[in-house]
Amino acid sequence: MAKDRSLLHGKGFSRSNLVYMRILYLRYPISQKPSHQLSWSHFVELLKIEDDLERKFYEIQSISEKWSVPQLKRQKNTALFQRLALSKNKEEILQLSAQGQEISKPSDVIRDPYVFEFLKIPEGQLPSELELENLLCNNLQQFLLELGKGFTYAGRQYRMTINNKHYRVDLVFYHRILRCFVLIDLKINEVQHDDIGQMNMYLGYFAHEENTESDNPPVGIILSKDKDELLVEYATYGMNSQLFVSQYQLYLPDKNDLITLVNNTLQSEESGD
After folding, report:
1. Residue 244 and residue 219: Cα distance in Å, rounded?
2. pLDDT in the model for residue 233
3. pLDDT at 81 over 80
4. What sign does the CA torsion over 66, 69, 74, 77 have?
5. Cα–Cα distances in Å, from 75 out to 79, 114, 138, 243?
6. Which run of H or of E encompasses 245?
7. pLDDT of residue 272
8. DSSP letter string, 10-22
9. What percentage of the chain has pLDDT greater than the value 70?
10. Residue 65 DSSP class
């Protein structure tokens, strides 16, 4: 059949394309027309996703963030939908699927964990903080893709001088949508309480010395290999709500585990309705 179609209509009617054309018809009834802003190759990737909520999210994000097909594949492989959904309730997960990632407050841009599989660091090899920083800067385009929409690179090892003593924050970005500086400190071990205090000092410096009248309060993100949730809770007690501690992974997450966690949230809330 595919050969007959190719002879009749030309290229594009391979067996696999015919299969996806049928799936497209099933996934998108006449009342739900596929977006003309995405290519056929985008839809082939989207149609591989069985879950309707997950597929809709990636479709919306592909359009709003103008993802290429390789970028879409990467975000699927790193389970972006599930990572964003982990900290949300049922209503918020449904909203995430229907509207994509809405950015109106600092917590909207936070991911936990962040995934740095693009660094291609061999398993068992843990880089130093400086090596990790160098690798992220050398792969800046992919790092910005992982950070998400709105981030622009501002610099690294940004120097601050307080009472004639110099301090440096590892990475500085500016977020176009939130209109604020975003400071990132990298830790290769478990985050400690003094790391949190140090970041809070950085935020105070930027708020008073770097911000202009049009800037919103700066955001601080400590990225650590491991974190003790209870320590973080106590160390940030009563502290700036613009300070976040997230973990990072050097390898792809187990997507099935993440899917199970998100589904449990949806099902548990349904049973409680």
Report:
1. 8
2. 92
3. yes
4. positive
5. 6, 11, 20, 25
6. strand 243-249
7. 53
8. -SS--HHHHHHHH
9. 86
10. T
Query: What is the architecture of the domain spanning 114-252?
Result: 3-Layer(aba) Sandwich (3.40)
Residue spans per domain, the chain = 1-33, 45-108+253-273, 114-252
Biggest CA–CA distance in the chain, Å, is 79
Mean pLDDT confidence for 63-90: 93
The pLDDT value given to residue 15: 63
> What average pLDDT does the structure give for the chain?
88
Question: Residue 2 — very low, low, confident or very high, per pLDDT cuts 50/70/90?
Answer: very low
**pTM of the entire predicted model:** 0.84
- Residue 265 confidence class, pLDDT cut points 50, 70, 90: confident
Question: Tokens at residue 245, please?
Answer: 């501690």
Provide the edge-to-edge strand list for the sheet that holds 180-190: 114-115, 243-249, 219-226, 180-190, 165-175, 151-162
Which among 77, 78, 49, 42 is positioned nearest to 63, based on CA atoms?
42
User: Alpha-carbon distance 180 to 171, whole Å?
Assistant: 14
- What percent of the chain is helix, strand and coil (3-state, nearest 5)? 50, 20, 30
Q: Where are the alpha helices (DSSP H) in the chain?
A: 2-9, 15-27, 40-47, 52-64, 69-77, 80-85, 90-99, 129-138, 140-147, 193-205, 229-235, 255-272
For residue 161, the tally of other CB atoms under 10 A from its CB is 10
